[in-house]
What we know:
By secondary structure, the chain is an alpha/beta fold. It has twelve helices and twelve strands.
Amino acid sequence: xxxxxxxxxxxxxxxxxxxxxxxxxxxxxxxxxxxxxxxxxxxxxxxxxxxxxxxxxxxxxxxxxxxxxxxxxxxxxxxxxxxxxxxxxxxxxxxxxxxxxxxxxxxxxxxxxxxxxxxxxxxxxxxxxxxxxxxxxxxxxxxxxxxxxxxxxxxxxxxxxxxxxxxxxxxxxxxxxxxxxxxxxxxxxxxxxxxxxxxxxxxxxxxxxxxxxxxxxxxxxxxxxxxxxxxxxxxxxxxxxxxxxxxxxxxxxxxxxxxxxxxxxxxxxxxxxxxxxxxxxxxxxxxxxxxxxxxxxxxxxxxxxxxxxxxxxxxxxxxxxxxxxxxxxxxxx
Length: 333
Ligand code: NAD
Ligand code: DAU
């Protein structure tokens, strides 16, 4: 198979490419990535010389480039996105461009070049925010996005479905919960807190720390995407989750314990605007229909992730840059 992966130089996409090339070593992968602040060529150093891997620096909104690249491709796996909620609160422009228009450009290229199989990577955030006693989100939960990020992802999901219904484009969608693992950009909770503690800094917990997320190790997410690509029903959406609902303060304390630090490092800071209270995923559809379930125990996955950041300080020290701080300060103006 020849596969076009978009956003393959980011966190989940780079883990996907490594996963896929190990498991399906005869497949050819083209990675189209614009290398925004979140894209990093170092994420894929170990495959960069593999003859079956090719990197193209480019924007998914570039119609001509995308149209040329999809020729001869059997499958598009679409990860590329602006992915950070806080950035979408500060400025949503790039989110609308990349997440909505970029998806539209890819869908048209897939449609106009023979109807290429298209897997779209989405998020649990499109479903909104759960109360503490609500049942977990599932594929039938109505969409209720509440941040510019989740609204842009919801719009993309609707477009993908529309191309299935209108143009019979062979699509599938996965909506996944919060990922963690190696190569995650430092603005996200888990890598930010681990690296702050390595550097002897405090960890900024938003609000009262009682917001809940459902955490999944990145390889489990990518194994779910693999199952959908191989066995999923065309036109269908699948919810993926880790079955690990934790409050932010619970996660923070686990990281502190693993790092051998004291809870004095916790700094409660101003809450995120419109902060969703709780996400949880009911993944019974993919479990029953495709036999997928998350395998990695959260405590083991977190310990592995802590070790990875401890052993890869070269990778993350380069990222702790002025640009990151500038955005961070803006959030708390
Ligand atoms: P990330 O921010 O780490 O990586 C995004 C990648 O997309 C980067 O390499 C970036 O350079 C690239 N990119 C951005 N704009 C582009 C453009 N216009 N053209 C080409 N490339 C572009 O994101 P991530 O956390 O790896 O998330 C990947 C996908 O998974 C996103 O679609 C996100 O919505 C979805 N998702 C993420 C999570 C999570 O917990 N991180 C959970 C569920 C779904
Ligand atoms: O649910 C899936 C989503 O998970 C993905 O679609 C997004 O791309 C991804 O960024 C992630 O979104 P979150 O907003 O849930 O992740 P983040 O790591 O930014 O925050 C996790 C929780 O921790 C959230 O409740 C906000 C809180 N938080 C975050 C940061 C960065 C803090 O308390 N302090 C922080 O410094």
